Fold:
Amino acid sequence: MSLGNLKTEGQKGFNHPWQRKMLNVLNQIDGNTDLMEFLLSSILTTLQAQTDYEARFVLETCPGPATRVLLEVRVWDQDSGTWGPIKYYLPGSSVETPIGVGCTIEYTDPSSFLAQILAELQLQTPILTAIEVDTTNTVNELTDINTTLASILADTTIISNIDFATETTLNLALTTLGSILAQLDVDLSTRASEVTAGQINSNVQLGNITLNNLLTAFNAEDFATETTLAAINTKLTPALRTHNTISAVGVGSVPAGSLSGSMLNAGNAAGIWNGASIPAGVSIPWAPIANRDTYGAIAYDATGTTFIIEYTT
Structure:
């Protein structure tokens, strides 16, 4: 660039306006160096953030029945042009989880996990429905019990019409019964017959009533039996339940006494469940039974495949 670049031949002129514009542009570039550096750094960060990676579900199987689902992840290293080391995470966690000692990793079809999620949703629906129905039944039973108790308390004539014996009368009755028992403690051939015993029972006085009258009065009332009260107590008493989860790869059985549960064939081959052949990816749930009844033992054969089994006892 010349200073002025004045023309001395032909049409005289100069290019000072163009040179002035170029100087202004260079001055603006120099004044925005920090902004340009920030923009270039942002672009580099954005490019680095587009790192390629691979992630898939695996099953970690350890000695014993312990099995858990992990997420296997590896990241592409753009500098070296190779895959980085494999790392494992629990689903939903950002903290790396080490593989246990003696444990093995099994690569499974992701569709089996989707089938397991579907089976769990299908299992929970009847359980929630059963809880809702059982709660309604419990409320109705409590309402009936409350109504019966209120009726008994309100009808005071039932109690007031019974002439209960005083302490003195009861002591006299005990003495009389003791005397009778002493008299009955004789040889079998001289014991009172059933007819004679009935006459004694009819004539023993407790205050103003006999034993027969007292038994008749009590039998007229519809009292709950001990069995009925025990059944009500069982329904009203909450119980702590145990949730069991196993990963089966051979012959076994779910022990008797389970309330509910489900089985998922998470392997790649069919297995035997309760005498029936179950294809891979199929789930079998069993729901709670009325009156809190339990199931018997359920046999299975998961040879060549994997059964994920959970049940409540």
Q: What stands out?
A: The chain has four domains: 1-50, 53-107, 116-130+239-312, 155-235. Residues 155-235 form one domain. The longest strand covers residues 67-77. The longest helix spans residues 110-154.
